[in-house]
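writing this on my phone so excuse typos. first protein, seq and then structure
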Amino acid sequence: MLRHDQRQPLDLRPIRFEKHIAPHAQGSVLVSFGNTRVICSAMIDEGVPRWMKEQNVSGGWITAEYSMLPYSTLTRKQRDSSRGKPDGRGTEIQRLIGRSLRAVVDLEKLGPRTMWVDCDVLQADGGTRTAAITGAAVAVELAGRWLLSQGKVASLPVKNRVAAVSVGKVDGRVVVDLDYFEDKDAAVDMNVVMTDALDFVEVQGSGEEHVFSNADLMTMLDAARHGIQALLQKQAECLAD
């Protein structure tokens, strides 16, 4: 039986990348997972955080920020600045994005500079964090190529590409790349981040008033691997253009 949007269980939504969406950033892309759309940009500052200097840590640093724009959801989402405090979910997601990128960038090759990655959700229909990671990886590689073209690094500081996808159990079936309609009713919800060597960076999974077996976990991880391989191919096509 097909899913509500006529996809097979292992099918991704239509995936699109539009490069150079932010002209003042060294790398940028608008990534779309179906109706989820995220602008990801990478900007480079010469210099590193003070804690690196104080602790004599060599190399550079990558940090990420994530936000959902007020009009990204059906009802207006209040900005953190007007709420007076950061959104806990957003803070957790931007830390995940930062970890995912630092896993695949050679910080020594990056040199004593900071790469700021911003992920701004234009439209949210499920899977914003996985779209943000997948798009941010493209923006970071574009910024790394810019550094190389300017003679600021001797070689591309990107060791691997990284992509992420959601996977879950909906109506008793394992499905990949959940939209909001599926996500809100999923018995199990998981986000998987992997490199192009198909090594895991992070796995986040939980049952929603349900439990899942070891067999379920293995099935979901295999499904996520299938989805991530397709995303990596889309990244490669974008970056080869």
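second protein below, same order as before
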Amino acid sequence: MSRHDGRNPDQLRPLSFTPDFAPNSTGSVLISTGNTRVICSAMVEESVPRWMKEQNVTGGWVTAEYSMLPYSTEQRKARDISKGKLDGRSSEIQRLIGRSLRAAIDLEKLGSRTMWIDCDVLAADGGTRTASITGASVAAALACKKLMAAGLIKEWPIKQLVAAVSVGMFNGEALLDLNYIEDRDAAVDMNVVMTESGQFVELQGSGEESTFSEAEMAALLALAKKGIGELFDGQRAIIAR
């Protein structure tokens, strides 16, 4: 099946990374996956959360915030601040980003400091959470390169990169890297987060007024592994530049 954007079922959208996009951050990148674009930045504070001090937890901490800018969608999206609280979707996504990064970073080697990951969606065409994770991993690695160069950390704290992609069942076929139209109409939608060693960090899958079989799940996971392998290639090329 040829998709409406001309891709094959197992093909990622065009991927690009623009490093150092936010010059005031410790590390940053603009990730573009098709028409989805997210600024991912990492800023480092020389302190840890109060709960870590109170509980005598050693090492550092990594946490994330996620937001969709008002002009990221066709209809203006109101800022969370205008509603007085973070919406449930944004809260769930930023917790996912934080969990994903903490699975990839050795917090002891990071030292007694906090790395703030900020993911701001400039344009949303599906897959904003997966693009945020993939870009955040690059931003964190670029930040750690600066920390190493400045002598603030002595050992490389990135245990391995982490990346994520969406897959889904659309018109009876397994597809990789869903755009908005495919995500909206998919019978099954799944987000897969993995490390370089092939370990899963998180699987988020559900049927949309539908069910899926074990064979379909296996097909989706096989697609996700293929796509994430290609994402790792792109990440490594930017980090090593």
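The chain has one domain: 15-239. thats all i got for now
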